[in-house]
Design goal:
The protein is of the alpha+beta class. It has helices spanning 90-104, 130-151, 182-185, 216-245; strands spanning 19-23, 31-37, 40-49, 63-70, 116-125, 164-172, 175-178, 188-197, 202-209. The chain is globular, with a radius of gyration of 18 Å.
Length: 263
């Protein structure tokens, strides 16, 4: 990768956009954040429901799921509200499932009891990477909601096993890049979304060649970029979560040890 190449916003190919996470953004939600990744802005709110889907009733297990939506003027031209349709678009359903899977991957659902945590991710402004921003913000909102349940004695054992975050990567005009803006994504020959954990493992990899196939070497390069980006996002998550616990959550001391400690 040629690190001398500068993108239109002045970033090197391996740089994230500035990321800010504002905790407790909403008054009533059990956990909420506004996450900003450059000009992409998403509100993530966690709600606790004392019920589970029918297939989990009587199992003692909880559930985590998500809904995703975009404000009509989150985009350059107005996008009609999906509430006017009979059901969400295929893209919306795919993103909702991705967010839910990503969060469930790092939570022990047996420690939730028979209750559901529903995460609403509403895109206020979209400039690429809305699904990855939603995952990274949703995790923080989820932790805040679980912290309240834990402090109230509703859940006894801390259920979060590790951090989870997501980034986009792609190949634009022959250059592998991290964290694509919309104008980069629209020009990308390869577009990929990667979800990873605090201990460096992958939860999901979604990759597509838009104009020409990519090689195994390029794939490895993109995954290395993504791993770097996920680690940087997790450091930002830790900086937000840590002060609310009165301490900095620790990374694993030994392989396999949880990186999100009980508050």
């Amino acid at each position: 990768m040629d690190e001398t190449v500068l993108r239109r916003d002045g970033r090197r190919p391996d740089m994230l956009r500035p990321i800010r996470i504002f905790p407790d953004f909403l008054k009533f939600a059990e956990g909420s954040v506004l996450i900003e990744c450059g000009d992409t802005k998403v509100i993530c709110a966690a709600s606790v429901e004392e019920r589970v889907p029918p297939f989990l009733r009587g199992t003692g297990r909880g559930w985590i799921t998500a809904e995703y939506a975009m404000l009509p003027r989150a985009t350059e031209t107005r996008t009609p509200r999906e509430t006017a349709r009979a059901q969400p678009s295929g893209r919306t359903q795919e993103i909702q499932r991705l967010i839910g899977r990503s969060l469930r991957a790092v939570v022990d659902l047996t420690k939730l009891g028979e209750r559901t945590i529903l995460i609403d991710c509403d895109v206020v402004q979209a400039d690429g990477g809305t699904r990855t921003a939603s995952i990274s913000g949703a995790f923080v909102a989820l932790v805040f909601a679980l912290r309240r349940l834990h402090e109230a004695g509703v859940i006894v054992e801390w259920p979060v096993r590790d951090y989870v975050a997501a980034v986009s990567v792609g190949i634009v005009e022959g250059t592998p890049m991290l964290d694509l803006r919309y104008e980069e994504d629209s020009r990308a020959a390869v577009d990929m979304n990667v979800v990873g954990t605090g201990d460096g493992r992958f939860v999901e990899i979604q990759g597509t060649a838009e104009s020409e196939p990519f090689t195994e070497e390029q794939l490895r390069h993109l995954l290395a970029l993504a791993r770097q980006g996920v680690a940087q996002v997790i450091e930002i998550q830790k900086a937000v979560i840590g002060p609310l616990w009165g301490k900095e959550p620790l990374l694993p001391e030994r392989e396999g040890e949880s990186s999100v400690r009980e508050p």
